[in-house]
Design a protein that fits this description.
binds zinc ion, Rossmann fold, binds adenosine-5'-diphosphate, Arc Repressor Mutant, subunit A, globular, 34 helices, seven-stranded parallel sheet, alpha/beta
Length: 715
Amino acid sequence: MSDNKLEALKKYFGYDSFRPQQAEIIDTVLANEDCLVLMPTGGGKSVCFQIPAIIREGLTIVVSPLIALMKDQVEALRGNGVSAAYLNSTLSSSEQDRVMWQAKVGELKLLYIAPERLFSGNTFEFLREWNVRLFAIDESHCISSWGHDFRPEYRQLTNLKQRFPDVPVIALTATADRVTRRDILKQLNIEHAQTFIASFDRPNLSLNVLPGRKRIEQIKSFLNKHTGQAGIIYCLSRKGTETVAASLQNAGFRAECYHAGLPAEKRSKVQEHFLRDDIQVIVATIAFGMGIDKSNVRWVIHYNLPSNVESFYQEIGRAGRDGSPADTTLFYSYMDIITRQDMINNSDQSAEQKELLHAKLNRMKQYAEADICRRRILLSYFNEAVDHDCGNCDVCRNPRTRFDATVIAQKALSGIARTDQKVAMGMLIDILRGSRNRNILQHGYDRLPTFGVGNELRGEEWAEYISQLLNSGVMDIAYDEAHAFKLNPVSRQVLKGERKIELVKFIPLAERKAKEEELIPKEKPKQEIIRDALFEQLRLLRKQMADALAVPPYVVFSDATLSEMAQKKPISEAQMKAVSGVGAEKFRRYGEAFINEILSFAKENTKPGTRVVKGLTYIETLDLYKNGYSVKVISEKRDLNPVTIISHLIKLKEDGHEIDLKSLIDDKSYKTIINAAQEIQISKNDPLKPLFELLNEQFDYGQIRLAFALWEENN
Ligand code: ADP
Ligand code: ZN
């Protein structure tokens, strides 16, 4: 049994091993037990029900609310050689009939179905005739009103267990909180089910928080360093998405906005173009993403602060699903917090609900303001113990330093006191820095004793320190008085010199960036340049093939698979199938085309005169050899020594390529060399010079090596 599932993983998905928990979950399902699976977005939930569906006889019903996603999921399964279909309102009635018929005659392994479709008409009655052996309930938090995405139509699933007591149920979700979890089990009537909670860590996602100043400039410079990489920018408002998208378009980037106010047609077009890699950047409200399974999203930027950590984690989780490195950035400023707080205060929620929302927002703020490893904060939010810093967040890369900022705090606080606690951030900074603008003069603030006492710090430094003071409770803010700062008991202690204040040292953005860039080696080694160039070429081929088949490129191969190909340069069937993500069906469909691309890339990059990279030079020799050229001709064509060519062929043979070594040396020479070698007891790894001399320099080193290789093969 256990071999079956690993075999299926390799054959259908091209992966060599299971991720943590996947194997246990599959075993549980195969033992007909119910289970609940909690894994982060991109964690690998699908395999948990797809492998059992493939291995066991009968049909697996997958319930999912994400209609837009079904087509791609089914397409991806078919691309892996698994027979699958979907039923939802996008199909014509004759198409639906056809799918129902396929289900009935047992042609399908998996059937994706929207909950409203499952309970409409007589589908539910049909299920009895369909030999259903497993129900997978995807996005199962939708059944709970405690979850963040309750869907009433999911409630009908409550009957499922009653009607099909013998069919196991696997419920899956990326929502972790305990209340929702318990409710899912209760609603589905599977309270005895085993619960599997995978780690929520996604180590391939880098975590960054940047000060929210000149956001567009920062995004542009980010995009210039991430040419061609697809990503999502999340904004708070529809208007925001439009302005950001427009500025990026003006700067020449392929960006589009996406929000619920756009016509459905436009939205699905934008989404489609993004999936197909025709648009690089989507600027969206949170309306975007639920229906997105694109595995090669390489970065996510939060233009504004999300309202809670769950949403934030889900949104950044859309990057790097393929496991390759991906970047996430959150822009943060003090104004973002205020905006969010205002939104909560002005909403028509109950007081209790508002309190909860403020508490959730506060956790998000703690993340944004952290001066310890950010991943620790995230994972502890999801109740996961972590005992080390991650090394892949901006705090780990740029450790913070604290300093005694009592004087800074006193200056700011006395500015507040002298203005009768009527000023907000902008005005306070102007007073401290001594700006003589109209507003200041009008109020006569230029005559205050605090005017200009803080001109040793730049405006952005003051903004940063004032936010920190506010956040650590050294003063208050009155949202209902145009965000004016107010003194509190702590402020008074500080002003009287009874209390010391520490703040985190401000690092100018440019300096922070420079420091991060120091970590990136300036000049890439040749090997890497070649790898990147080959990756680009393979990416183009992938795009062509995907367009021809009208599927998104990541359905052909993931970025992770392409990058492994670019590194290992497989040119035989066995080598290609050893690449993670190349299963039997994928190889059948695309194997040859990708091998040919690697071969032609090798040819292009090994022309005489270019400094040749090891992997490529073998490939070029192999290509010529396969075309029937002799060692002599190959060596002439390649402008290399025949001895070198022979050593290539020996190496290629060892790697499993079909090379007829025997034809390269005549029998008499072979025997003479081997006899002589045995006489003086020399083997292939010894220095060959004594043998060369014993043979009166009659045979070159190529022939000697060849004889050894052949001898090894025969013995
Ligand atoms: P989720 O549904 O949890 O968000 P998916 O099921 O879409 O995640 O899986 C995310 C990615 O990880 C997919 O590209 C999938 O093919 C890949 N994946 C899943 N299991 C494995 C594995 N055992 N080894 C390598 N890649 C895997
Ligand atoms: Zn860290």
